[in-house]
UniProtKB/TrEMBL annotation:
Domain Major facilitator superfamily (MFS) profile, chain residue ranges per copy: 37-439
InterPro entries linked: MFS, MFS_dom, MFS_trans_sf
TM region positions: 33-50, 62-87, 94-120, 126-149, 161-183, 195-215, 260-281, 293-313, 325-345, 351-369, 381-402, 414-435
Protein's name in the database: MFS transporter
PANTHER family on file: PERMEASE-RELATED, TRANSPORTER, PUTATIVE (AFU_ORTHOLOGUE AFUA_6G08340)-RELATED
Localization per record: Membrane
Keyword Transport: yes
Membrane topology: Multi-pass membrane protein
Keyword Cell cycle: no
Keyword terms, alphabetized: Membrane, Transmembrane, Transmembrane helix, Transport
Entry-linked PROSITE patterns: MFS
Amino acid sequence: MQHAGGAAPDIGPATPDIGAAAPDIGAATLKRVTRGLMPLFCLMYLIAYIDRQNVSYAKLEMVGALGLTEAAYGLGASLFFLGYFLFEAPANLILVRVGAGVWFSRIMGTWGLVTIALGFTQSPAMFFVLRFLLGVTEAGFFPGVLYVLTLWYPHAHRARMIGAFMMASALANAVGSVVGGALLDLNGLLGLAGWQWVFVATGAPAVLLAPYVLWRLPSHPEQARFLTPDQKAWLARTLAAEPRQQAEGSPWRALLDIRVMALAGLYVGLPLGAYGLSYWLPTLVKGFGASNIQNGFINVIPWVFVALALWWVPRHAARNGVSAWHISGPMLLGAVTLVLSVVVPGAAPKFALLCVAAAAIFAGQPVFWSVPQKLLAGPHAAAGIAAINSVGNLGGFVAQNVVPRIYDATGSQLAPMLFLAGCLLIAGVSIRVLVPRLAGW
């Protein structure tokens, strides 16, 4: 089978029954895998990302309801990432043991219940505890999917599959923008405030979907009802033939792998920019004079740009050869447009630049995640990917604390954007220099 971006790996002598049809069976197998897995993964991520985004809309009313400052609310929101950081690697290693269906079902059910509980927050302390627990319960989902993709797809296809998977986050932000604004306007319905409806209505879908995930999602290709025996055999041979480097011994040793630590440090800038922007975007748009519902609809537009970028960049990399510029180039563009979005006059130009910035910040992530998938395999991949994601997502913790603190201290919208842009610039340059050495590009 011919893979985008290069020749297919040698999978050995053809067997009489399927050898002559290897290209056909390979294409058919990957199509079935994609139809069998990706819609469910995308739906799960859509729900997860709406769940992450809801705090930025609830903030518009919850700050006043609980008597919080912007900085205190940012601290509470960011505690999600601390819980996520602490439990990410253990969660992914449990996934290896119990299987995807069981573990993803548990993750979704518990994070949905904690999100619903956030709708009944009575005090700042309760808000802080529940946000930390939300990170604990969701830990392992995103890196778990990235690990599971290594069990189902040859390496040449993974960046595009990650891009397709992450497009669900863009759709989630678009849907969440409309839903978040609309839910705020339900203030008073059934005795609940608008910010309470934001949490209750976005937590319920995860709880409802959890049993279906348990029933529908196979843990390994051998258990897939949607693949024939010949297709399972082709996939097993193809994946086994791919060269991979991995640590010896306990999968926990992957956490000390210098390549894993380097990638984790490089990744920090991506979620820092992404969460800094998504957390702050509704507040910026409200500053244009938009109502709650207008704010929601306007915020759909940047995530359409993000979806297009997540679709285009991995395909460009596959057609023209993967390079570090597919990661660092969009980050540098994001840094420039973030600053310009504050400097240029006029609401329309500001918003247009924010749309470009959003797309640029997310665009390089699918290609970035293909690097650890290439370097590690098996439980070492599960531990290594989780470590990179958990350390990197501390960027979200930093963003949701530092951005509002800078704003509170300066009263300026430019200062927070300069901070985010500076972090993206440093990370982008570092990725351009170091990733080619790590990945062998």
